[in-house]
C-alpha cells in the first residue's frame, strides 16, 4: 500500500510544484520598461522649445558639464504432489480342502456299513474327478477376474487421490482470491479518499494556476504580435561582400573601393573585421556611416549593451552584386570609440525634412572615449547649415536652459544606464527614458537623432509617450516638435585637403 500511496502523492505535489515554478518564471512586466512620468504642468511660461529640463530653483542647482497490481510472493500453483503409493494386489491364497470320507460305523458291533455305501464312494470318487476337471477349467477364469478387480481398485484409488488434490487446490485458490480481494478493497478505499478529498483541492489550485498561465499566454501573444509587427521588414539581409576591404572607408576608397556600398572594415588587426556602409560619394567620399535613420524600421529605444555592440541593418541589396542601400543602424559605441581614437576624425551629420530639404552639420574633430569613461563625446570645429547643436545648444533657449542642451563633453546614456546631467542618481529624472533613445544627453538635448520616429514631421506633446520632445529632433533647424525624415552620422579620418 505504501508503495502505491507514495507515487500518487508525489505526482500530485510534483504537478503543483511544477505549476508554481512556471508562475515564477516570467514575473516580468512588459510595461515596466519605461517608468511613467508624472503629469507635469508647465508653469505659465509657454516656451515652445523643449529639449531642456528647467530648474526647480527651490531644490536644484545645475552645473554644466552621466513539467491490477501484481500479487507478489508466490505463484498460483503449489509444488506438484507426489503420487500416493498404490498397495500391491493381495492375492487370496486358495487353501485346498483335504479329502475325507470312510465307511466305518461308529460302533464295531454295528459292523461295517452297507457295501453299497462303498460303491457309492467309488462312484463319488469318479464324479469327483469330473468335478475336479471342471474346477481346473474354471480356475484360470477366476484368476483373471481377480486380477481385473485389482486393476479397478487401483484406478479408483488413483481417482480419489486426484480428487482430493483438486479439492485442496480449490481451497488454496479461494484463499488467494480472498487475499487479493482484500488488497483491492484497501486500495480502492485509499484511492476513493484521495479522489474525494485531496484531488478537489489540488484541482482548484491547478485551475488557479492554469488561469494565471492563460493570462500570461495572452500577454505573451500580444507581445509576439507586437514583435511580428516590428519584424515585418527583414531584420538582416545577406549581402555579397566586396573584394576590397580596409581599415576604414577612407582606406577602402584609396584601395579602389570608390562605390558607396557595404564593405568589411578592420581598423585594428587585433580585432575581427565587421560590416559597415561607406559613403564614397558625398564630400569626396571616405565616410563611414555610424548612425542612420530613414524609415523608422529599426527600434532605437535600446539598452546600454545594444548601443555598445551596435544594432540594426547595415545595408540592403539594390542589385545581385552590391549592397548599395544603407539600412537603419547604430554602429556601436565600442567601434565608434575605437575609430575616433585612431586619429583625428571628423563627423558629418546630414538630415532631411519631409519636404525633401537637406541640411548638414560638420565637426572637424569628433572623439568618443572608451566605455570606462562611459563613451564621453567631444567635438570642435563646426561648419554647415543645420545649426551647432553639439557645441552651442538650442538658440531658442537662453542662459542655463540653453546650456542644458549642449552635447559636447557629455557621457552616453541609455534607459538602463543613466549618465546624463539631469539630477544624476535620480531614477525619475532620466533623459534616455523620456526622450526615446541612447545618446549623449545633457539635461537633456538639442539634438536627438536616436529618438522616436514620427512619420510626417510635426508631432505634439500628446503624441509623445512622456510628453517630451522625443522625436528625431535637431532643434537648431526644425525645433523641438518636428521629427526629421532622415538623419545620418558619418565619420572620416581628418586630413588637410590640398
Ligand atoms: C495632463 O494634464 C493635462 C492638463 O494639464 C490633461 O489635458 C491631460 O489629459 C493630462 N494627461 C494625463 C496622462 O493625465
Ligand atoms: C528656463 O526655462 C523656464 C521654463 O521653461 C523659464 O521659466 C525660465 O525663465 C528659463 N530661464 C531662462 C534663463 O530663460
Automatic annotation (TrEMBL):
<dbReference type="GO" id="GO:0034116">
    <property type="term" value="P:positive regulation of heterotypic cell-cell adhesion"/>
</dbReference>
<dbReference type="InterPro" id="IPR002181">
    <property type="entry name" value="Fibrinogen_a/b/g_C_dom"/>
</dbReference>
<keyword id="KW-0325">Glycoprotein</keyword>
<dbReference type="InterPro" id="IPR036056">
    <property type="entry name" value="Fibrinogen-like_C"/>
</dbReference>
<dbReference type="GO" id="GO:0070527">
    <property type="term" value="P:platelet aggregation"/>
</dbReference>
<protein>
    <recommendedName>
        <fullName>Fibrinogen beta chain</fullName>
    </recommendedName>
</protein>
<feature type="domain" description="Fibrinogen C-terminal">
    <location>
        <begin position="240"/>
        <end position="495"/>
    </location>
</feature>
<dbReference type="GO" id="GO:0005577">
    <property type="term" value="C:fibrinogen complex"/>
</dbReference>
<keyword id="KW-1015">Disulfide bond</keyword>
<keyword id="KW-0094">Blood coagulation</keyword>
<dbReference type="Pfam" id="PF00147">
    <property type="entry name" value="Fibrinogen_C"/>
</dbReference>
<dbReference type="GO" id="GO:0030674">
    <property type="term" value="F:protein-macromolecule adaptor activity"/>
</dbReference>
<feature type="coiled-coil region">
    <location>
        <begin position="203"/>
        <end position="230"/>
    </location>
</feature>
<dbReference type="InterPro" id="IPR012290">
    <property type="entry name" value="Fibrinogen_a/b/g_coil_dom"/>
</dbReference>
<dbReference type="InterPro" id="IPR014716">
    <property type="entry name" value="Fibrinogen_a/b/g_C_1"/>
</dbReference>
<keyword id="KW-0732">Signal</keyword>
<dbReference type="GO" id="GO:0005201">
    <property type="term" value="F:extracellular matrix structural constituent"/>
</dbReference>
<feature type="region of interest" description="Disordered">
    <location>
        <begin position="29"/>
        <end position="101"/>
    </location>
</feature>
<dbReference type="GO" id="GO:0042730">
    <property type="term" value="P:fibrinolysis"/>
</dbReference>
<dbReference type="GO" id="GO:0051258">
    <property type="term" value="P:protein polymerization"/>
</dbReference>
<dbReference type="Pfam" id="PF08702">
    <property type="entry name" value="Fib_alpha"/>
</dbReference>
<dbReference type="InterPro" id="IPR020837">
    <property type="entry name" value="Fibrinogen_CS"/>
</dbReference>
<keyword id="KW-0356">Hemostasis</keyword>
<dbReference type="InterPro" id="IPR037579">
    <property type="entry name" value="FIB_ANG-like"/>
</dbReference>
<feature type="compositionally biased region" description="Basic and acidic residues">
    <location>
        <begin position="49"/>
        <end position="62"/>
    </location>
</feature>
<dbReference type="GO" id="GO:0005102">
    <property type="term" value="F:signaling receptor binding"/>
</dbReference>
<comment type="subunit">
    <text>Heterohexamer; disulfide linked. Contains 2 sets of 3 non-identical chains (alpha, beta and gamma). The 2 heterotrimers are in head to head conformation with the N-termini in a small central domain.</text>
</comment>
<dbReference type="GO" id="GO:0072377">
    <property type="term" value="P:blood coagulation, common pathway"/>
</dbReference>
<keyword id="KW-0964">Secreted</keyword>
<keyword id="KW-0175">Coiled coil</keyword>
<feature type="signal peptide">
    <location>
        <begin position="1"/>
        <end position="19"/>
    </location>
</feature>
Amino acid at each position: 500500500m505504501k508503495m502505491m500511496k507514495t507515487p500518487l502523492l508525489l505526482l500530485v505535489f510534483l504537478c503543483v510544484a511544477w505549476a508554481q515554478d512556471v508562475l515564477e518564471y516570467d514575473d516580468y512586466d512588459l510595461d515596466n520598461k519605461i517608468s511613467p512620468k508624472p503629469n507635469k504642468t508647465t508653469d505659465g511660461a509657454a516656451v515652445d522649445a523643449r529639449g531642456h529640463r528647467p530648474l526647480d530653483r527651490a531644490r536644484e542647482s545645475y552645473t554644466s558639464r552621466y513539467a491490477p497490481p501484481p500479487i507478489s510472493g508466490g505463484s498460483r500453483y503449489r509444488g506438484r504432489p507426489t503420487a500416493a503409493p498404490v498397495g500391491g494386489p493381495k492375492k487370496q491364497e486358495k487353501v485346498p480342502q483335504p479329502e475325507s470320507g470312510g465307511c466305518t460305523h461308529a460302533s464295531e458291533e454295528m459292523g461295517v456299513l452297507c457295501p453299497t455305501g462303498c460303491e457309492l464312494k467309488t462312484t463319488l470318487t469318479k464324479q469327483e474327478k469330473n468335478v475336479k476337471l471342471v474346477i481346473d477349467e474354471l480356475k484360470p477364469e477366476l484368476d483373471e477376474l481377480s486380477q481385473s478387480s485389482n486393476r479397478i481398485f487401483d484406478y479408483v484409488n488413483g481417482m480419489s487421490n486426484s480428487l482430493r488434490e483438486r479439492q485442496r487446490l480449490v481451497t488454496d485458490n479461494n484463499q488467494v482470491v480472498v487475499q487479493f480481494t482484500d488488497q483491492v478493497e484497501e486500495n480502492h478505499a485509499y484511492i476513493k479518499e484521495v479522489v474525494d478529498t485531496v484531488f478537489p483541492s489540488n484541482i482548484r489550485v491547478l485551475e488557479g494556476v492554469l488561469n494565471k498561465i492563460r493570462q500570461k499566454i495572452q500577454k505573451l501573444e500580444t507581445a509576439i504580435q507586437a514583435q511580428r509587427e516590428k519584424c515585418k521588414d527583414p531584420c538582416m539581409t545577406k549581402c555579397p561582400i566586396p573584394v576590397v576591404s580596409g581599415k576604414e572607408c577612407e582606406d577602402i576608397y584609396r584601395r579602389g573601393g570608390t562605390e558607396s556600398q557595404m564593405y568589411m572594415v578592420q581598423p585594428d588587426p587585433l580585432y575581427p573585421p565587421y560590416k559597415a556602409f561607406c559613403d564614397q560619394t558625398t564630400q569626396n567620399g571616405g565616410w563611414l556611416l555610424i548612425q542612420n535613420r530613414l524609415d523608422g524600421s529599426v527600434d532605437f529605444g535600446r539598452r546600454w549593451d545594444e548601443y555598445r555592440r551596435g544594432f540594426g541593418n547595415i545595408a540592403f541589396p539594390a542589385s545581385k552584386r552590391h549592397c548599395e542601400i544603407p539600412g537603419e543602424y547604430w554602429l556601436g559605441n565600442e567601434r565608434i570609440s575605437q575609430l575616433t581614437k585612431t586619429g583625428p576624425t571628423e563627423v558629418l551629420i546630414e538630415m532631411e525634412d519631409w519636404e525633401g530639404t537637406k541640411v548638414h552639420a560638420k565637426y572637424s574633430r569628433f572623439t568618443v572615449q572608451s566605455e570606462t569613461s562611459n563613451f564621453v563625446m567631444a567635438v570642435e570645429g563646426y561648419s554647415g547649415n543645420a545649426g551647432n547643436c553639439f557645441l552651442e545648444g538650442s538658440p531658442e533657449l537662453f542662459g542655463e536652459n540653453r546650456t542644458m542642451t549642449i552635447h559636447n563633453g557629455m557621457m552616453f546614456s541609455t534607459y538602463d544606464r543613466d549618465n546624463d546631467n539631469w539630477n544624476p542618481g535620480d531614477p525619475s529624472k532620466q533623459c534616455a527614458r523620456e526622450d526615446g533613445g541612447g545618446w549623449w544627453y545633457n539635461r537633456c538635448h538639442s539634438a536627438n537623432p536616436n529618438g522616436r520616429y514620427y512619420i510626417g514631421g510635426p508631432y505634439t506633446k500628446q503624441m509623445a509617450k512622456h510628453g517630451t520632445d522625443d522625436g528625431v529632433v535637431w532643434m537648431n533647424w526644425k525645433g523641438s516638435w518636428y521629427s526629421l525624415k532622415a538623419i545620418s552620422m558619418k565619420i572620416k579620418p581628418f586630413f588637410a585637403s590640398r
